[in-house]
Amino acid sequence: MSIAIIVEGKNDRSRLKRVVDDTVIIHCTFGTPSSLTLDSLRKKVGDLPVYIFTDNDASGKKIRYLLRDTFPDAEHIYTRKGYAGVEGTPEEYLIGQLEKAGLDAYIVYPAPNPAYE
């Protein structure tokens, strides 16, 4: 089964794609979503479980608030304040947050660096 993660922009999507498998569908709001955008997202997501992963800044919080109304059953994933949004969050931290959300089955773990073994 697949899941949907909603992020703010294409750079966030690119960052997440590096740590999740191809069954995860990542949608972007491309900024603060209008009611038309929210309706379109609702249709695209369908019955998939939804995870909302927006930046920990004023804009990200506003977008999360709007998405919360459209997807009341969504799980919320948070990045740490001080990181430059989802796109600027280290992969290790992203993976940790995805694990906390119970998404282990969808995570693509980086190969171990042989220099450190």
UniProtKB/TrEMBL annotation:
Residues 2-86 form the Toprim domain. GO terms for molecular function: ribonuclease M5 activity. GO terms for biological process: rRNA processing. Gene3D superfamilies: 3.40.1360.10. This is DNA primase.
